[in-house]
């Protein structure tokens, strides 16, 4: 999830651009900026901000301290109908879909530049909306969003079709064409980045888009759509309808005039989206779902300190609200105590703080429901006999927000709930093992298959594990290394298809064969 060029949690660089550190020059602090920000919660359809047709809204509060951020348009089926109709009209008109690739490329490049020039505003929206530290929003989320869009812009005029090896009296070409209207449904944990992973390839391929952001974090995506217009992406091509999953999301996934859904979210919702496709027009479905990833550390790991630091960031970065989080730490017995001591020391240095303070490394969980869910998993770990090594409690209650300590369990058995279910919070389950075969068997004993890691100095062990682990991404002597150039997605119930890289075009394009016979 992290960009290879970023260093999450490195607050020093974030502080360089942080107004809080420059107060002697009267630059406002992030808290002051937050107090002045008035986010617009209206939908964005056909190039304009609009209220929902029913005029209904829902109140969006910040998980940082419970403050009201905006009244957000509560999109329903008629709003989705309107957005899809506008997206279809834009697609059919050819204003974007038939535009020369080089012209689409220029508009998307401008879009990426504008995202960079709105970095501070977008970062602040992201932090207020879902609670992540402002330093991470500035250093990771906004730059990674711009880079994703720029990368797909640059790819537009470098992807060629094929000519089949037929008889010389025939010409058979195989070309990729846009699908038409694509619906994207995204979660709240990386609102900007998840949106960028969809809109990059969807728009680069020439489709029109209706995006349904999470009801828990709709604000940055709405702002992105406005910026897209400024960049020259025509009205109707990129629409955003906020709303709840069971209303707006369901209406989009059931829509008869939507050609595909690019979904990121939980496995349970992914299964519903597939059903909606079957109940409606058999639209194409791409799913990026949950995970319970295993991080295997052998006793001969090349650098215990590096392995412990990576293991800590693999579960505490973004408050553990990461699909690819290394939530199961499998440690070979001889190094178990040494690993746990190092991880707990890092955990203690990462206590939650005010997300608007640039030195904060762990922020708020997205809402009270998510916090209660995380706390109930901690209770279940205790009840089922796991040993609490550190953390385990709610903190900063006086703030009015939702904060949980970085938590490490030891002596977890593979059957326990905290070893099997996705917690989506800063809770690490440590499972000791003796042999690599045992570790691989435990790692694969899950319904998920998103990511996995193996730490070993022995190339034979590392290679054997990398081959045997049933996951879309396997890291060797690292965790969560990432870049837009490589595919992201999972085996088993972690999803279908891949985001990122050129492979993402497969989700959002049709393959056409044109067979020409010569006289
Ligand atoms: P979620 O499934 O609750 O919601 C995801 C999106 O689906 C939201 O926009 C929501 O409104 C919408 N939705 C909910 N019910 C719907 C319905 N019936 N029909 C249509 N849409 C509906 O997930 P979440 O809590 O927002 O996000 C956390 C989950 O996302 C975790 O499981 C995490 O692992 C997963 N995730 C996966 C990836 C990946 O790339 N594999 C990335 C980020 C998050």
Compounds present? nicotinamide-adenine-dinucleotide
Structural class of the secondary elements?
Answer: alpha/beta
Strand content: 15-25%
Mean pLDDT: 95
Shape: globular
Folded structure, characterized:
The protein is an alpha/beta fold and 519 residues long. Helix content is 39%, strand content 19%. It has a seven-stranded mixed sheet with strand order 14-17-18-13-12-19-20, sandwiched between helices. The model is unreliable at 3-23 (pLDDT under 50). Nicotinamide-adenine-dinucleotide binds at residues 185-189, 194, 212, 214-215, 244-246, 249-250, 253, 264-266, 269, 272-273, 288-291, 323, 422, 424, 450, 488, 490, 495.
Quick tags:
519 residues, alpha/beta, 39% helix, globular, disordered N terminus, binds nicotinamide-adenine-dinucleotide
Note the topology.
Elements: H1 11-16, H2 30-36, E1 43-45, E2 48-50, E3 57-61, E4 68-73, H3 77-93, H4 101-117, H5 119-130, H6 134-155, E5 162-163, E6 170-178, E7 181-185, H7 191-204, E8 208-212, H8 219-230, E9 238-240, H9 245-254, E10 260-264, H10 267-279, E11 284-288, E12 294-297, H11 304-316, E13 328-332, H12 336-349, H13 368-383, E14 387-390, E15 394-395, E16 403-404, E17 407-410, H14 417-420, E18 427-433, H15 436-444, E19 451-455, H16 459-468, E20 473-476, E21 495-496, H17 505-508, E22 509-517
Parallel strand pairs: 7-8, 7-10, 8-9, 10-11, 12-13, 12-19, 13-18, 17-18, 19-20
Antiparallel strand pairs: 1-2, 3-4, 5-6, 6-22, 11-21, 14-17, 15-16
Helix pairs in contact: 3-9, 4-6, 4-8, 5-6, 5-8, 6-7, 11-12
The structure holds nicotinamide-adenine-dinucleotide.
Nicotinamide-adenine-dinucleotide binds at residues 185-189, 194, 212, 214-215, 244-246, 249-250, 253, 264-266, 269, 272-273, 288-291, 323, 422, 424, 450, 488, 490, 495.
């Amino acid at each position: 999830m992290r960009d290879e060029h970023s260093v999450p949690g490195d607050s020093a660089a974030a502080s360089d651009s942080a107004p809080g550190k420059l107060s002697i020059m009267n630059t406002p602090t992030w808290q002051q900026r937050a107090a002045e920000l008035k986010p617009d919660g209206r939908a964005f359809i056909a190039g304009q901000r609009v209220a929902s047709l029913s005029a209904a809204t829902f109140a969006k509060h910040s998980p940082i301290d419970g403050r009201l951020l905006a009244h957000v348009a509560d999109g329903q089926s008629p709003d989705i109908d309107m957005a899809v109709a506008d997206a279809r009209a834009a697609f059919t008109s050819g204003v974007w879909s038939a535009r020369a690739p080089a012209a689409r490329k220029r508009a998307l490049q401008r879009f990426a530049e504008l995202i960079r020039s709105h970095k501070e505003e977008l970062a602040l929206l992201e932090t207020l909306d879902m609670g992540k530290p402002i330093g991470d929003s500035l250093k990771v989320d906004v730059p990674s969003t711009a880079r994703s869009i720029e990368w797909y812009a640059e790819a537009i005029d470098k992807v060629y079709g094929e000519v089949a090896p037929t008889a010389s009296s025939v010409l058979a070409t195989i070309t990729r064409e846009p699908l038409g209207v694509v619906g994207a449904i995204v979660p709240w944990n990386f609102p900007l980045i998840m949106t960028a992973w969809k809109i990059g390839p969807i728009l680069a391929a020439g489709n029109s888009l209706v995006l349904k952001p999470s009801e828990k974090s709709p604000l940055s995506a709405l702002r992105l759509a406005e910026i897209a217009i400024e960049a020259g992406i025509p009205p109707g091509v990129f629409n955003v309808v906020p709303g709840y999953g069971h209303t707006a999301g369901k209406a989009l996934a059931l829509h008869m005039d939507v050609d595909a859904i690019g979904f990121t979210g939980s496995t349970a919702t992914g299964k519903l989206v597939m059903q909606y496709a079957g109940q409606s027009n058999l639209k194409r479905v791409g799913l990026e779902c949950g995970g319970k990833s295993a991080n295997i550390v052998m006793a001969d790991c090349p650098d215990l300190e590096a392995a412990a630091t990576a293991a800590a960031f693999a579960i505490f970065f973004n408050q553990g609200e990461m699909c690819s989080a290394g939530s199961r730490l499998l440690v070979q017995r001889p190094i178990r105590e040494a690993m746990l001591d190092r991880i707990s020391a890092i955990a203690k240095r990462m206590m939650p703080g005010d997300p608007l303070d640039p030195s904060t490394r762990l922020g708020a969980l997205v809402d009270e429901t998510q916090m209660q869910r995380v706390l109930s998993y901690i209770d279940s770990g205790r009840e089922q006999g796991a040993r609490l090594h550190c953390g385990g409690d709610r903190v900063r209650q006086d703030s009015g927000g939702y904060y949980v300590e970085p938590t490490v369990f030891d002596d977890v058995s593979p059957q326990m709930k905290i070893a099997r279910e996705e917690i989506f919070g800063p809770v690490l389950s440590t499972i000791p093992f003796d042999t690599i075969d045992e570790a691989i068997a435990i790692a694969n004993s899950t319904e998920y298959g998103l990511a996995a890691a193996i730490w070993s100095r022995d190339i034979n062990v590392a290679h054997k594990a990398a081959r045997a682990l049933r996951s879309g991404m396997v890291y060797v002597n690292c965790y969560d290394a990432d870049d837009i150039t490589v595919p992201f997605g999972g085996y088993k119930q972690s999803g279908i298809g891949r985001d990122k890289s050129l492979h993402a075009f497969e989700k959002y394009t049709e393959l056409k064969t044109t067979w020409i016979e010569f006289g």
